[in-house]
């Protein structure tokens, strides 16, 4: 699949789709950037491995993003600002396609808005060493293959729910990032 084909597929999938918007007062609003980049004709999703210095999800993989600040004009603005701070992304280098449903965190007090974006040009990232240990780019073809997702049923506060695990070259993406990734992949055709 090319970047142009993905753009059209995402736009088609998001058109006319009702988005679940949720801002419970007990949860902190946050936004993350689900960014697709093209490398040598293949598509990749960009993740960051969080350092041990951050307040939440130490050492876990996440999409670039963070808390929506009062000066942020939108969820998109917050995700782009945070991606700039965390990995040196120039907001002018991406095309925002749309928003996925807001997702409440189960282990942290956030409600997260995933912002879908495509890289307009080749990019190099510069991780902020306080927040980002390293950047992981995972092929979309790998992630969209259902055989590469493992699901476990976990229980918390008497409620059962699925946890999606994506393991790529020894790294594991799971938790709320796995939930966001699963929601994104539902908009994308599976790998052949």
Please supply descriptive tags for the structure shown above:
single chain; 192 residues; alpha+beta; Nucleoside Triphosphate Pyrophosphohydrolase; 8-stranded mixed beta sheet; 3-stranded antiparallel beta sheet; 4 helices; 11 strands; 21% helix
Which sheet architecture does the biggest sheet show?
Answer: 8 strands, mixed
Number of strands: 11
Strand content is 35-45%
Q: Which spans of ≥5 residues are poorly predicted at pLDDT below 50? A: none
Figure out the total of helices. Answer: 4
CATH architecture: Alpha-Beta Complex
What is the CATH superfamily classification?
A: Nucleoside Triphosphate Pyrophosphohydrolase
State the name of the first-level CATH class: Alpha Beta
Number of domains: 1
User: What is the rounded Rg?
Assistant: 16 Å
| Amino-to-carboxy terminus distance | 10 Å
Order of helices and strands: HEEEEHEEEEHEEEH
CATH topology: Nucleoside Triphosphate Pyrophosphohydrolase
Helix content: 10-25%
The overall pLDDT, averaged over residues, is 91
Query: What is the molecular shape?
Result: globular
The SS-based structural class is alpha+beta
Kindly report the oligomeric state of this protein: single chain
